[in-house]
Amino acid sequence: MPFFRQAGKEVCNAFTDVCNRFTLSLKAVLNTATLHQKAMI
């Protein structure tokens, strides 16, 4: 069973990595949109 535990950990780490990148890009998009709104006002 250790194999499954290790595989689960790998999947979890990969998922977390993807999640973090997605959050970072989402924040960047939101920041850019906010900057554009401020520039328009």
Walk me through what this model shows.
The chain has one helix at 2-40. It is an all-alpha fold and 41 residues long. The protein has one domain (1-41). The protein is rod-shaped. The termini are far apart. 0% of the residues are buried.
Secondary structure blueprint with pairings:
Layout: H1 2-40
For the largest beta-sheet, the strand count, sense and barrel status come to: none
List unreliable stretches of 5+ residues. Answer: none
Strand tally, please? 0
> In what range is the share of β-strand residues?
under 5%
- Backbone structural class: mainly alpha
Please give the domain count: 1
**Gross morphology:** rod-shaped
Query: How many helices?
Result: 1
Overall residue-averaged pLDDT value: 90
In helices, the fraction of residues equals over 70%
Supply the key terms.
0% strand; 41 residues; 1 helix; mainly alpha; rod-shaped
Please give a quick description of this structure.
The protein is an all-alpha fold and 41 residues long. The protein contains one helix and no strands.
